[in-house]
DNA sequence: AATGTGAGCAACCGCGAAAAA
DNA sequence: GTTTTTCGCGGTTGCTCACAT
């Protein structure tokens, strides 16, 4: 089953991308918008398979991607969402709009898994709340060891609250990109954020605004001219992952996720509150973001707390 | 200084789902 | 309704770099 490899053609290039290839891809997306990846190699002259082009764009060239160290808040969000959703990296990434699913997956595999293992072996306090969940491989095995206890609820609550507390200064600082050095080394190009900054700078400079607006990409609202990454871009703007989460909610919690947006005056909550239409989470039209507020609101209120306390994953093995 | 080892991450592969023919 | 094509996701690989020996 499944489709055969799309890149078995002779002459298809593999391996790290060069600046020239990135420029070609960016030019194409700037003109046509992301999508129709099949046409990219022929229209751009890139000797890459369409899959590789999509991946390069999604994981690296796409505007709004934050690179570098994960913050404590991001880490907590990942841990809690992984415990809730399993290895649904795309769904998790929709709640961390500046991070790609690949990044989150890598971070989980290289950092958080080890942390989990360490915590499982040790007997110390678990500040992330991952101890106690059999979160490793949770969705494939379906083996959740026990009911959630009140400690778990409190930990989840704390983690979510922490995650929603955004340090404005810190986040802006971490989003700054740097001008590319003139002595770039081709071999390390693919891991050079500076190169992307340079490419995007040229791209934005040469791009009429109307093109971006008409693009079917979800990149509306970008402000790349000063290279300050914003939280306005999200792959969930396509509405896909948000719906997935909504469905997961319905199946998990047994009722429609028809929450009202929070009345919270907190800027972050307001800025990221999606609308919920017919049980589907719709990204905020102005920000393109799905929000944690639905999850957060429900999880933190008494109804969610009670449900989680009494919920047994053993009795619901097919949820994830 | 040379070599070995492990961590981190970009990119690839294979699969399933959805869309198109 | 069936087959083919395309897209997107999650798992895995392999390259690069930093650090230890």
UniProtKB/TrEMBL annotation:
Subcellular location as annotated: Nucleus
Pfam families: Myb_DNA-binding
Keywords: DNA-binding, Nucleus
InterPro entries cross-referenced by the UniProt entry: Homeodomain-like_sf, Myb_dom, Myb_TF_plants, SANT/Myb
SUPFAM superfamilies: Homeodomain-like
Chief subcellular location: nucleus
Segments of skewed composition (Low complexity): 129-142
Region of interest (Disordered), residue spans: 119-147, 260-282
PROSITE patterns, sorted: HTH_MYB (PS51294), MYB_LIKE (PS50090)
Residue intervals of the HTH myb-type domain: 9-65, 66-116
Residues of the Myb-like domain: 9-61, 62-112
Gene3D superfamilies attached to this UniProt entry: Homeodomain-like
Name of the protein described by the UniProt record: R2R3-MYB protein
Organism per entry: Rehmannia glutinosa (Chinese foxglove)
């Amino acid at each position: 089953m499944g489709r055969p490899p799309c890149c078995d053609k002779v002459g298809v290039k593999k391996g790290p991308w060069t600046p020239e290839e990135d420029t070609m891809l960016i030019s194409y997306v700037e003109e046509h918008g992301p999508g129709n990846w099949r046409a990219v190699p022929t229209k751009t002259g890139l000797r890459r398979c369409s899959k590789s082009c999509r991946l390069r764009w999604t994981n690296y060239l796409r505007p709004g991607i934050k690179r570098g160290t994960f913050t404590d808040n991001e880490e907590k969000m990942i841990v809690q969402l992984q415990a809730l959703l399993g290895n649904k990296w795309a769904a998790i990434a929709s709640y961390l709009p500046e991070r790609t699913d690949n990044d989150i997956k890598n971070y989980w595999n290289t950092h958080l898994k080890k942390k989990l293992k360490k915590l499982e072996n040790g007997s110390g306090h678990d500040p992330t709340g991952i101890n106690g969940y059999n979160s490793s491989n949770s969705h494939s095995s379906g083996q959740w060891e026990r009911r959630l206890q009140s400690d778990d609820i409190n930990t989840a609550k704390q983690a979510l609250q922490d995650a929603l507390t955004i340090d404005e200064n810190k986040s802006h600082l971490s989003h700054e990109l740097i001008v590319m050095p003139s002595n770039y080394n081709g071999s390390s190009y693919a891991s050079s954020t500076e190169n992307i900054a340079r490419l995007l700078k040229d791209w934005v400079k040469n791009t009429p605004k109307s093109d971006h607006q008409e693009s079917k990409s979800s990149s509306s609202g970008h402000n790349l001219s000063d290279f300050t990454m914003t939280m306005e871009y999200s792959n969930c703007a396509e509405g896909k992952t948000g719906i997935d989460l909504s469905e997961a909610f319905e199946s998990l919690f047994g009722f429609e996720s028809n929450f009202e947006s929070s009345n919270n005056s907190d800027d972050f909550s307001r800025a990221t509150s999606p609308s919920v239409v017919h049980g589907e989470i719709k990204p905020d039209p102005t920000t393109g973001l799905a929000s944690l507020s639905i999850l957060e609101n429900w999880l933190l209120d008494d109804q969610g707390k009670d449900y989680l306390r009494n919920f047994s994953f053993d009795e619901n093995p097919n949820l994830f």
